[in-house]
Please model this.
Amino acid sequence: MERRIDRQPSVLRSLDWWTIGIYLCLLAFGWISVCGASFSFGDTDIFSLSSRSGMQIIWIGTSIVLGFVLLMLDDRFYDTFAYVLFAAMLLLLFATIFNPHQIKGSRSWLVLGPLRLQPAEFAKFATALAIAKFMSTYGFDIHRWKHLFAAAAFIFLPMLFIIGQRETGSALVYLSFFLMLYREGMPGSFLFTGVAMVIYFVVGIKYEQVFLWDTPTSIGKFVVLLLVQIFTAVMVQVYCNDKKKTWLMITYAICTTLIFLLFSEFVIPFDIVWVQLMISAGVIGYVLYCGLSTRINNYFFIALFAIGSIVFFYSADFVLNNVMEPHQRVRINVLLGLDEDLSGAGYNVHQSEIAIGSGGLQGKGFLNGTQTKLKFVPEQDTDFIFCTVGEEEGFMGSAGVLLLFLALILRLVYLAERQPFKFGRIYGYCVLSVFLFHVFINVGMVLGLTPVIGIPLPFFSYGGSSLWGFTFLLFIFLRIDAGRNLIRA
Model:
C-alpha cells in the first residue's frame, strides 16, 4: 500500500540541492553584473536602495523567500489548480492590453505605485502548468490532430494577448514550448518546417538584390525555390520511403534548372525564377499524383509543405517591404547585414560588441568597465547585461556564466527525465525550453547573432518581474520533483 509522507523535513531532504546551488550562484553573479552595469564613477554606496544594485538585492531576497513559499506548498496544488491559474493569468493579460500606462511603446507593465510588474513573465509558469495538466490527462494523444491543436491553443492564447500589449519579444518566448511538444512526440516535420521557414526568410531576403552571373535572376529567390524542390524530394524519401521518386524529382529539378541557366547565360538573358516556379509546380503536381495513385496521405502533406513554403516566402517578402514599420524593417536589415546603421537600429548591438571585445581574456575587473560606466550601451543592466559580463570579467567570466547556464539546462533535463508521472516531465521540459530560449536569444542578441527582441537574461537582468517569473518556473518544478520522493511503499 502506498502512502505519502508530508512531514516538512522530508520535503527539504528530497529537494535537488544541486539545482538550488546553481540558482544561488546565478543570482550572485547576476547581482555583480547589475552592480557593474548600473555603477557610475563617483558612486559611494552600491547597497543603497536608491541605486539599481541596492534594489536588486531586494528583488533577490524576495525571490528566495518566494521560492521557499513555493516549496512549502503541496505539489498536488500545482496540478489541481493549473487551469485556475492559467485562466487568471489570461484575464490579467487581457486586462493589461487596456492598461493606461505605456512604457517604451508597450502596454505590458502594470504600475502599482513604485512597483512595476509584467504579467507576461508570470504567465509562463501558468501556461506551462496548464499544458502539462492537459497533456497528462487520460486519452491524450499528440498524434491526433485535434489534441495537438488543442495543446497549441494553450500556447497561442497568451501570445495573442501579449502581442496586443505591443510586447512582441515576450510573446515569442512562448514558441519555446514547441520544443516540449517535440519531446513528447510531435512529428519532426513540424520542427523541420519551422527551420525551413527561417532558412527561406534569411536566404531569400539577404540575397534578394544579388543577381546570378549576368542574368536578371535574384539569387535569393532562385536558391529558395531550389531548396523547396530539394526539401520536398527529400521528404518523399523520409516519410514515404521511396528513394526512386526522390532521385527522379531531384534529377528533374537540377537538370532542368541547369539547362535554362546555361540558356539564360549564353543565349538570351531572362529571369530564371519563372522557370523555378514552373519546376516547383511540376514537383508539387507529381507529389499530388503519387498521393492519388497510392492513397498515401503523407504525399498530400508533403505537397502542402511545398505550397506553404512558396506562399510563406513571397508573403514574408511582401510583409517586410510593404507592411512592417520602417524601424522594424531597418532592424531586420541590420541583423541580416544589409544595413549597418551604427547610429540607429544597430547602435545597441555595435556598442555591446565593443564592450565584450574590450574585455579580452580576463576582463577589466569589477566596476572597471569603460563602455558600461560611460553608458554607451543602452539597456545595459536589463536586456544587454551580458555585455557587462564580457567587459568586466572577460572571456573567462563569460564562459563561466555560460557553463553555469549549461549546468542548469542539463540538470533540468535530468530532473525532467526522472519524473515518474507525465505531468512532472512535461512541466519540466516547459521550464527547460523557456530557459534555453531566453539564454540562447539574449546572448545571441548581445553578440549580434540573433534579432534584438528585448527579452531578459535569466537571473541577471535587473528587475523583479523577470526574476520572480523565473523563480516561479524553477521552484514549482523543484517542488514537483521533490514530491516524487515523498511516495513511499
Notes: The chain is about 70% helix and 0% strand. The longest strand covers residues 110-112.
